[in-house]
């Protein structure tokens, strides 16, 4: 087991290092921040002084080594716009993003999982068709389109809710619903498919043939086994809590990390962009690591194989 955990931890660290490297290279090759941040009529001497002050005049390799060494010492750099620490700018926006994504995650799980289970247990019924039709619609409609439709109906036509901004719980309703609908649709489809696959297994038919009540078969055999692929999707959603809000925060002018990322990319604020991408990578990798641990709790066969591998 310890060997398995060490392997997973090593893979997680390598993944984070690859994300950091990829972000660093792409951002440096996408253009010179000095030319964007400085005014168009700035003298060449001022532009060169800016590049020297921020180390942009050094080779890409030297910049990368210094950047990676700074990360290892807990220094994620400073914003080129106002000189503040990048981690401070990002940390200020995290509560606003979580105020959207955590309620949206609750909607995804609270609606998607029960809907998928119910549809699977009533396969080919009218309810099943209705649930899957709504799931397909929720899955295929882009979040920015859904957000604009909700604004048109509930903000412009009915005037019930604000169209954007923050300040009260009413400002969060539309973006939370926008984030929650698509995820609920995805979970409903995956949960239904997982349940149908499990319900068709021989051990389900055997348990039913032995006279075990159907509700006990579903609760004791079908749900635990169908939970494994569902947990995978939920883990991905948890890992993408920050990255998944970029579009919605932009549509509703919500002051979270996603909107900060859009502004930082447009301004070539390298340290802020790299800090956000590092945060997203750590969140995603940590979520996947927890999901791997949950697999063992849900499937005893995995625990046995890991124990055998560790021995």
Automatic annotation (TrEMBL):
What are the transmembrane regions?
Answer: 12-31, 98-121, 133-160, 172-190, 226-251, 271-295
**Compartments where found:** Cell membrane
Print the keywords alphabetically: Cell membrane, Membrane, Transmembrane, Transmembrane helix, Transport
Q: What is its main location?
A: membrane
Topological type in the membrane: Multi-pass membrane protein
Q: Which organism is it from?
A: Neoroseomonas lacus
* GO MF entry, a single one: dipeptide transmembrane transporter activity
Q: Which one Pfam family would you cite for this protein?
A: BPD_transp_1_N
Describe the family membership recorded for this protein in Swiss-Prot or TrEMBL. Belongs to the binding-protein-dependent transport system permease family.
Q: Which superkingdom is the protein from?
A: Bacteria
Report the protein name in the record.
ABC transporter permease
Q: Which GO terms of the cellular component aspect does the record hold?
A: plasma membrane
InterPro entries from the UniProt entry: BPD_transp_1_N, MetI-like, MetI-like_sf
Give residue ranges for domain ABC transmembrane type-1.
94-295
């Amino acid at each position: 087991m310890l060997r398995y955990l060490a392997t997973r931890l090593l893979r997680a660290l390598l993944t984070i290092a690859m994300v950091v490297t990829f972000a660093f290279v792409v951002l440096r090759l996408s253009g010179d921040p000095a030319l964007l941040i400085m005014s168009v009529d700035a003298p060449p001497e001022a532009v060169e002084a800016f590049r020297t002050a921020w180390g942009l005049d050094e080779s890409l390799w030297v910049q990368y080594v210094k950047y990676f060494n700074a990360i290892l010492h807990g220094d994620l750099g400073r914003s080129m716009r106002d000189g503040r620490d990048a981690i401070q700018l990002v940390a200020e926006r995290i509560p606003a993003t979580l105020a959207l994504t955590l309620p949206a995650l609750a909607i995804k799980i609270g609606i998607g999982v029960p809907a998928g289970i119910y549809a699977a247990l009533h396969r080919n019924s009218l309810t099943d068709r209705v649930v899957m039709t709504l799931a397909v619609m929720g899955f295929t409609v882009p979040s920015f389109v859904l957000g604009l439709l909700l604004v048109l109906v509930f903000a412009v036509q009915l005037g019930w809710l604000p169209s954007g901004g923050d300040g009260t719980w009413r400002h969060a309703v539309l973006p939370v619903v926008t984030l929650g609908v698509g995820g609920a649709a995805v979970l409903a489809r995956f949960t239904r498919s997982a349940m149908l696959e499990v319900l068709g297994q021989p051990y389900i038919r055997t348990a039913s043939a032995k006279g075990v009540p159907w509700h006990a078969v579903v609760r004791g055999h079908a749900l635990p086994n169908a939970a494994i692929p569902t947990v995978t999707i939920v883990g991905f959603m948890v890992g993408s809590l920050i990255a998944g809000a970029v579009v919605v925060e932009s549509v509703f002018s919500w002051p979270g990390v996603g909107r900060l990322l859009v502004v930082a990319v447009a301004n070539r604020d390298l340290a802020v962009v790299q800090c956000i991408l590092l945060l997203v990578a750590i969140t995603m990798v940590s979520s996947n690591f927890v999901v791997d641990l949950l697999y063992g709790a849900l499937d005893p066969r995995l625990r046995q194989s890991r124990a055998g591998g560790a021995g």
